[in-house]
Amino acid sequence: MRNNLGRVFIIFLLGFTSCDSNRIFDEYKTAPDSWHKDNIITFSITPPDTTKHYNLFINIRNTSDFKYSNLFLIVEMNFPNGKVTKDTLEYLMAKPNGEFLGTGFSGIKENKLWYKEAVVFSENGEYKINIQHAMRENGSIKGIENLEGITDVGFRIEKVQDN
What we know:
Blueprint: H1 2-18, E1 23-30, E2 34-36, E3 41-45, E4 53-62, E5 70-78, E6 84-92, E7 109-120, E8 127-133, E9 146-148, E10 150-159
Antiparallel strand pairs: 1-10, 2-9, 3-8, 4-7, 4-10, 5-6, 5-8
């Protein structure tokens, strides 16, 4: 009986991990109790191949303490040669009725958000991805100092499927 449970567990584990064969990089960093507008979350990556295409994602975990229907982020990619690209992005986080988007059964929802599609990391070396929030109240110029309800910020790279 014990051997059968062990075999079932190993088969389950192999099946679970093989479902994510496109993953190249997937890392999360915990946001503090409230994410300060000047707190930049940084990921360092060294892509494995300078000729292949990759899809890039920002992963966000939020709780019901997140009071907004959208999320504004500033994402900066620093290339090994010193080039920098910077994007201001907006993501929908809730339906019009207030129900949060994303996956998860508990009080935490996880969102896999598109950042860039079919990217080629043409330079060898380390890339740095910097992510910070850029949230503001409607009609206000001043940014929200401390954003509540975001528990984790992640960055993910996936291989583009060959057609």
